[in-house]
């Protein structure tokens, strides 16, 4: 588990001055990973709607907390070269990722409140893909020899593009089939 050193408090020294924020981000992110997966399972089974709603609210709370804390950590001098710029390509990418998650989650919540459940489902899938993108980034960065600047963008934009293709493909196929003569 990537967050294990933070969860067990074994790397407090690696996060001097901002460990509390790092720990808070780990709590929010871990909550998102588990609650989001559970909620997608409940939605796919299409049962136990009250539980789905309750877990969804918790997912949004953990997510908003984790994303906002991530923005603070990313926009801080933590893990940056002393005297160097605060906003680097990596920090801008991570700020954009957190902002995208907040936007997708808000759009998903709005769609659910407006009873547009297909749209809600798609926005929440997008938000969950972004949650896992950070995990993918952390794991793959240890194995893939690529520059940090390019990799940090590709680690979440790539999965999001694949997600969008998967979400939109069925609609495009249905429209193409309806437009064929004799079908």
TrEMBL record:
It holds the Pfam family DUF2306. The keyword Transmembrane helix applies. The chain crosses the membrane at residues 20-42, 54-74, 86-111. It comes from the Bacteria. Keywords: Membrane, Transmembrane, Transmembrane helix. This is DUF2306 domain-containing protein. The lineage of its organism: Bacteria, Pseudomonadati, Pseudomonadota, Alphaproteobacteria, Sphingomonadales.
């Amino acid at each position: 588990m990537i967050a294990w050193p933070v969860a067990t408090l074994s790397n407090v020294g690696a996060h001097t001055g901002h460990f509390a924020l790092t720990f808070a981000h780990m709590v929010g992110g871990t909550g998102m990973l588990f609650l989001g997966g559970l909620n997608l399972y409940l939605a796919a089974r299409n049962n136990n709607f009250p539980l789905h709603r309750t877990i969804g609210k918790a997912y949004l709370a953990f997510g908003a907390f984790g994303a906002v804390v991530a923005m603070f950590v990313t926009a801080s001098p933590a893990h940056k070269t002393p005297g160097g710029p605060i906003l680097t390509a990596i920090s801008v990418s991570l700020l954009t990722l957190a902002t995208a998650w907040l936007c997708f989650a808000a759009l998903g919540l709005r769609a659910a409140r407006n009873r547009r459940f297909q749209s809600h489902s798609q926005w929440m899938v997008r938000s969950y893909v972004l949650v896992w993108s950070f995990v993918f980034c952390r794991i793959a960065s240890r194995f893939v020899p690529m520059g940090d600047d390019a990799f940090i963008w590709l680690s979440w934009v790539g999965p999001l593009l694949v997600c969008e293709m998967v979400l939109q493909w069925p609609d495009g196929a249905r429209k193409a089939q309806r437009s064929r003569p004799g079908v």
